[in-house]
Design goal:
With about 250 residues, this protein is α/β, with parallel strands linked by helices. Helix content is about 45%, strand content about 15%. β2 (about 35-40), α2 and β3 (about 65) form a beta-alpha-beta unit. α1 (about 20-30) packs parallel to α2, α3 packs parallel to α4 (about 110-130) and α4 (about 110-130) runs parallel beside α5. InterPro entries: NAD(P)-bd_dom_sf, Sc_DH/Rdtase_CS, SDR_fam.
Protein backbone atom coordinates (compact mmCIF):
# COMPACT_ATOMS: atom_id res chain seq x y z
CA UNK A 1 0.00 0.00 0.00
CA UNK A 2 1.50 3.35 -1.02
CA UNK A 3 1.91 6.20 1.43
CA UNK A 4 -0.52 8.28 -0.66
CA UNK A 5 -3.28 5.84 0.26
CA UNK A 6 -2.49 6.25 3.97
CA UNK A 7 -3.77 9.76 4.74
CA UNK A 8 -3.25 9.28 8.49
CA UNK A 9 0.26 7.84 8.30
CA UNK A 10 2.33 8.98 11.26
CA UNK A 11 -0.71 10.15 13.22
CA UNK A 12 -1.70 8.84 16.65
CA UNK A 13 -5.37 8.14 17.35
CA UNK A 14 -6.78 7.57 20.82
CA UNK A 15 -10.21 5.90 20.65
CA UNK A 16 -12.03 5.38 23.94
CA UNK A 17 -14.22 2.31 24.37
CA UNK A 18 -12.72 0.66 21.31
CA UNK A 19 -12.53 -3.03 22.21
CA UNK A 20 -15.80 -3.82 20.42
CA UNK A 21 -18.71 -2.44 18.42
CA UNK A 22 -18.47 1.03 16.88
CA UNK A 23 -15.25 1.82 18.75
CA UNK A 24 -13.48 -1.25 17.39
CA UNK A 25 -14.64 -0.41 13.85
CA UNK A 26 -13.24 3.12 14.27
CA UNK A 27 -9.91 1.82 15.54
CA UNK A 28 -9.71 -0.58 12.60
CA UNK A 29 -10.58 2.11 10.05
CA UNK A 30 -8.12 4.70 11.37
CA UNK A 31 -5.35 2.10 11.51
CA UNK A 32 -6.13 1.05 7.93
CA UNK A 33 -5.47 4.66 6.93
CA UNK A 34 -2.08 4.66 8.63
CA UNK A 35 -2.73 5.88 12.17
CA UNK A 36 -1.22 4.28 15.23
CA UNK A 37 -4.18 3.53 17.47
CA UNK A 38 -4.73 3.18 21.19
CA UNK A 39 -7.45 0.58 21.74
CA UNK A 40 -8.95 1.57 25.08
CA UNK A 41 -10.96 -0.82 27.24
CA UNK A 42 -12.14 -1.10 30.82
CA UNK A 43 -12.86 -4.77 31.54
CA UNK A 44 -12.74 -6.95 28.43
CA UNK A 45 -9.06 -7.47 27.70
CA UNK A 46 -9.87 -10.42 25.44
CA UNK A 47 -11.92 -8.32 23.04
CA UNK A 48 -9.35 -5.53 23.10
CA UNK A 49 -6.60 -8.01 22.26
CA UNK A 50 -8.74 -9.42 19.43
CA UNK A 51 -9.22 -5.93 18.00
CA UNK A 52 -5.48 -5.28 18.17
CA UNK A 53 -4.77 -8.62 16.51
CA UNK A 54 -7.14 -7.82 13.63
CA UNK A 55 -5.42 -4.48 13.14
CA UNK A 56 -1.97 -6.10 13.15
CA UNK A 57 -2.85 -7.78 9.86
CA UNK A 58 -3.31 -4.44 8.10
CA UNK A 59 -0.67 -2.62 6.09
CA UNK A 60 -1.26 0.50 8.09
CA UNK A 61 -0.62 1.74 11.59
CA UNK A 62 -0.15 -0.38 14.67
CA UNK A 63 -2.45 -0.76 17.65
CA UNK A 64 -1.81 -1.04 21.38
CA UNK A 65 -4.44 -1.97 23.99
CA UNK A 66 -4.59 0.27 27.06
CA UNK A 67 -6.87 -0.31 30.03
CA UNK A 68 -8.42 2.78 31.60
CA UNK A 69 -11.77 3.76 33.05
CA UNK A 70 -12.50 7.02 31.24
CA UNK A 71 -15.68 7.71 33.22
CA UNK A 72 -13.42 9.32 35.81
CA UNK A 73 -11.01 12.22 35.52
CA UNK A 74 -7.98 10.30 36.78
CA UNK A 75 -8.59 7.41 34.40
CA UNK A 76 -8.66 9.80 31.47
CA UNK A 77 -5.43 11.45 32.58
CA UNK A 78 -3.71 8.07 32.89
CA UNK A 79 -4.88 7.09 29.41
CA UNK A 80 -3.48 10.30 27.92
CA UNK A 81 -0.18 9.83 29.75
CA UNK A 82 0.15 6.26 28.50
CA UNK A 83 -0.66 7.30 24.93
CA UNK A 84 1.96 10.06 24.97
CA UNK A 85 4.49 7.68 26.51
CA UNK A 86 3.89 5.20 23.67
CA UNK A 87 3.60 7.52 20.68
CA UNK A 88 4.74 11.00 21.73
CA UNK A 89 1.58 12.96 20.92
CA UNK A 90 -2.14 12.69 20.18
CA UNK A 91 -3.39 13.78 16.77
CA UNK A 92 -6.90 12.30 16.84
CA UNK A 93 -9.05 11.94 19.94
CA UNK A 94 -12.27 9.95 19.49
CA UNK A 95 -14.48 10.07 22.59
CA UNK A 96 -16.63 7.05 21.84
CA UNK A 97 -17.03 5.48 25.29
CA UNK A 98 -20.40 5.95 26.93
CA UNK A 99 -23.34 4.28 28.64
CA UNK A 100 -27.02 4.21 27.77
CA UNK A 101 -29.38 3.26 30.56
CA UNK A 102 -33.14 3.48 30.61
CA UNK A 103 -35.24 5.40 33.14
CA UNK A 104 -38.32 7.58 33.14
CA UNK A 105 -38.66 10.55 35.49
CA UNK A 106 -40.81 8.53 37.88
CA UNK A 107 -38.13 5.87 38.40
CA UNK A 108 -35.07 8.12 38.11
CA UNK A 109 -32.46 7.91 40.87
CA UNK A 110 -29.59 10.21 41.69
CA UNK A 111 -27.03 7.44 41.17
CA UNK A 112 -28.41 6.71 37.67
CA UNK A 113 -28.20 10.40 36.80
CA UNK A 114 -24.69 10.81 38.21
CA UNK A 115 -23.29 7.72 36.47
CA UNK A 116 -24.59 8.86 33.07
CA UNK A 117 -23.32 12.41 33.37
CA UNK A 118 -19.95 11.23 34.72
CA UNK A 119 -19.40 8.73 31.91
CA UNK A 120 -20.98 10.58 29.00
CA UNK A 121 -20.16 14.21 29.79
CA UNK A 122 -17.59 14.76 32.54
CA UNK A 123 -15.27 11.95 31.42
CA UNK A 124 -15.00 13.06 27.77
CA UNK A 125 -14.64 16.73 28.69
CA UNK A 126 -11.78 16.24 31.13
CA UNK A 127 -10.11 13.69 28.87
CA UNK A 128 -10.12 16.33 26.13
CA UNK A 129 -8.65 18.80 28.63
CA UNK A 130 -5.83 16.38 29.41
CA UNK A 131 -5.18 15.59 25.74
CA UNK A 132 -5.14 19.10 24.25
CA UNK A 133 -1.65 20.04 25.54
CA UNK A 134 -0.32 17.04 23.60
CA UNK A 135 -2.21 17.81 20.37
CA UNK A 136 -0.48 19.69 17.54
CA UNK A 137 -2.15 22.05 15.09
CA UNK A 138 -4.22 19.95 12.73
CA UNK A 139 -5.49 17.84 15.64
CA UNK A 140 -8.97 16.39 15.67
CA UNK A 141 -11.37 15.89 18.58
CA UNK A 142 -14.49 13.87 17.84
CA UNK A 143 -17.23 13.53 20.45
CA UNK A 144 -20.15 11.09 20.24
CA UNK A 145 -23.83 11.94 20.46
CA UNK A 146 -26.93 10.10 19.23
CA UNK A 147 -29.50 10.40 16.48
CA UNK A 148 -32.16 10.28 19.20
CA UNK A 149 -31.72 14.02 19.74
CA UNK A 150 -33.33 14.64 16.35
CA UNK A 151 -35.95 11.89 16.60
CA UNK A 152 -39.47 13.13 17.32
CA UNK A 153 -40.51 9.62 18.37
CA UNK A 154 -38.00 9.38 21.22
CA UNK A 155 -39.45 7.45 24.16
CA UNK A 156 -39.53 8.78 27.75
CA UNK A 157 -37.04 6.21 29.07
CA UNK A 158 -34.18 8.01 27.27
CA UNK A 159 -34.64 11.15 29.39
CA UNK A 160 -31.22 11.26 31.03
CA UNK A 161 -29.28 9.64 28.18
CA UNK A 162 -30.59 12.24 25.73
CA UNK A 163 -29.75 15.01 28.20
CA UNK A 164 -26.13 13.84 28.39
CA UNK A 165 -25.79 13.80 24.63
CA UNK A 166 -27.38 17.22 24.32
CA UNK A 167 -24.69 18.42 26.71
CA UNK A 168 -21.99 16.73 24.63
CA UNK A 169 -23.11 18.49 21.45
CA UNK A 170 -22.90 21.84 23.22
CA UNK A 171 -19.46 21.02 24.63
CA UNK A 172 -18.19 20.33 21.13
CA UNK A 173 -19.86 23.42 19.67
CA UNK A 174 -18.30 25.78 22.21
CA UNK A 175 -14.93 24.01 22.42
CA UNK A 176 -14.55 24.42 18.66
CA UNK A 177 -14.31 28.17 19.28
CA UNK A 178 -11.56 27.84 21.90
CA UNK A 179 -9.53 25.12 20.22
CA UNK A 180 -9.80 26.51 16.70
CA UNK A 181 -7.22 29.08 17.81
CA UNK A 182 -4.85 26.15 18.34
CA UNK A 183 -5.62 24.66 14.92
CA UNK A 184 -7.68 21.82 16.42
CA UNK A 185 -11.11 20.94 15.03
CA UNK A 186 -13.90 19.72 17.31
CA UNK A 187 -16.94 17.86 15.99
CA UNK A 188 -19.57 15.37 17.06
CA UNK A 189 -20.80 12.19 15.37
CA UNK A 190 -24.41 11.17 16.09
CA UNK A 191 -25.21 7.63 14.91
CA UNK A 192 -28.69 6.33 14.26
CA UNK A 193 -29.72 2.71 14.98
CA UNK A 194 -26.57 0.64 14.43
CA UNK A 195 -26.17 -3.14 14.41
CA UNK A 196 -23.90 -3.55 17.39
CA UNK A 197 -24.10 -6.41 19.87
CA UNK A 198 -25.36 -3.97 22.50
CA UNK A 199 -28.11 -2.54 20.27
CA UNK A 200 -29.37 -5.93 19.08
CA UNK A 201 -29.34 -7.56 22.51
CA UNK A 202 -32.83 -8.44 23.74
CA UNK A 203 -34.66 -7.03 20.72
CA UNK A 204 -37.00 -9.47 18.93
CA UNK A 205 -36.61 -9.88 15.17
CA UNK A 206 -39.96 -8.22 14.55
CA UNK A 207 -38.79 -5.07 16.31
CA UNK A 208 -35.48 -5.03 14.42
CA UNK A 209 -37.30 -5.42 11.11
CA UNK A 210 -39.59 -2.55 12.07
CA UNK A 211 -36.62 -0.31 12.79
CA UNK A 212 -35.04 -1.26 9.48
CA UNK A 213 -38.20 -0.44 7.56
CA UNK A 214 -38.37 3.02 9.13
CA UNK A 215 -35.52 4.16 6.88
CA UNK A 216 -35.28 4.38 3.10
CA UNK A 217 -32.34 1.96 2.89
CA UNK A 218 -34.30 -0.73 4.79
CA UNK A 219 -31.36 -1.70 7.00
CA UNK A 220 -29.61 -0.78 10.22
CA UNK A 221 -26.37 1.13 10.16
CA UNK A 222 -23.22 -0.94 10.51
CA UNK A 223 -20.31 -0.01 12.80
CA UNK A 224 -18.24 0.46 9.66
CA UNK A 225 -20.67 3.17 8.45
CA UNK A 226 -19.98 5.18 11.59
CA UNK A 227 -16.24 4.54 11.31
CA UNK A 228 -16.22 5.99 7.80
CA UNK A 229 -17.77 9.22 9.10
CA UNK A 230 -15.18 9.44 11.88
CA UNK A 231 -12.39 8.81 9.37
CA UNK A 232 -13.64 11.71 7.26
CA UNK A 233 -13.63 14.08 10.24
CA UNK A 234 -10.13 12.86 11.10
CA UNK A 235 -8.88 13.35 7.56
CA UNK A 236 -6.99 16.31 6.05
CA UNK A 237 -10.07 16.96 3.91
CA UNK A 238 -12.10 17.94 7.00
CA UNK A 239 -9.80 20.79 8.07
CA UNK A 240 -12.63 23.35 7.61
CA UNK A 241 -15.27 21.27 9.38
CA UNK A 242 -15.52 22.23 13.04
CA UNK A 243 -18.23 22.89 15.60
CA UNK A 244 -20.76 20.69 13.85
CA UNK A 245 -22.70 17.50 14.52
CA UNK A 246 -22.65 14.91 11.77
CA UNK A 247 -25.80 12.78 11.99
CA UNK A 248 -25.00 9.37 10.51
CA UNK A 249 -28.45 7.84 10.37
CA UNK A 250 -29.09 6.70 6.79
CA UNK A 251 -32.04 9.17 6.68
CA UNK A 252 -33.82 7.17 9.42
CA UNK A 253 -33.69 10.33 11.51
CA UNK A 254 -33.72 13.68 9.70
Amino acid sequence: MSSSSLPLKGKTALVTGSSQGIGAAIAHKLASEGANVIVNYVHNKGKADATVKSISGLKGGKAVPVQADVSGVEGGKQLVEETVKLFGSIDILVLNAGIMGSSTLEKLTESFYDSHFSTNVKGPLFLAQAAVPHMPAGGRIIFFSTGLLAQSGITPNYLVYAATKGAVEQLARVLSKELGAKGITVNTVAPGPTATELFLQGKPEQLINGIKSSGPFNRLGEPEDIAEAVAFLASPGAKWVSGTTLRVTGAMIV
